[in-house]
């Protein structure tokens, strides 16, 4: 698949992801086995202490990783994940990158990194996706 076809295919699925869009997540780019996304931090992304809620990081990373997994043209659902919260953030924009590091017949493993506007690493996660198509 050409890069534009990969992006168009994955972006069509992103458009149907109302949960990601509701949370202000924007898909920036998709290539073979990789993706980038961002999220502007707002009042609805924060916990009671004013920091980005862990679920917001997870949603951003999961959506970005899922897009990287789908870059092979197949459909996937999240099977499990492991996350490390590195630095608390209160404002600005978060930038996620994802890269596939294993692609099997049914399971695709993807690593995610989220950086703040100062390019500091604030989150790292590993997500496994189960392929639901052949």
Structural summary, described in words:
A hairpin with a 3-residue loop joins strand 4 and strand 5. 25% of the residues lie in helices and 41% in strands. It starts with a helix and ends with a strand. The chain has one domain: Thiol Ester Dehydrase, Chain A, CATH 3.10.129. The protein has a 6-stranded antiparallel beta sheet with strand order 1-2-4-5-6-3. With 134 residues, the protein is an alpha+beta fold. The chain contains 3 helices and 6 strands. The protein is globular, with a radius of gyration of 14 Å.
Using brief descriptors, characterize the structure shown.
134 residues, alpha+beta, Thiol Ester Dehydrase, Chain A, six-stranded antiparallel β-sheet, 3 helices
What string gives the helices and strands in order? HHEEHEEEE
- Quantity of strands, as a count: 6
Main beta sheet: strand number and arrangement? 6 strands, antiparallel
**CATH top level?**
Alpha Beta
Q: What distance separates the N and C termini?
A: 16 Å
Low-confidence stretches: none
Tell me the count of domains.
1
The CATH architecture = Roll
Can you tell me the overall shape?
globular
- How many H/I helical runs? 3
> What is the average per-residue confidence, as pLDDT, rounded to a whole number?
93
Binned, the helix content reads 25-40%
CATH topology tier name: Thiol Ester Dehydrase, Chain A
How would you name the CATH homologous superfamily? Hotdog Thioesterase
Rg: 14 Å
* Strand order in the largest sheet: 1-2-4-5-6-3
What proportion of the residues form beta strands (DSSP E)?
Answer: 35-45%
Which structural class matches the secondary elements?
Answer: alpha+beta
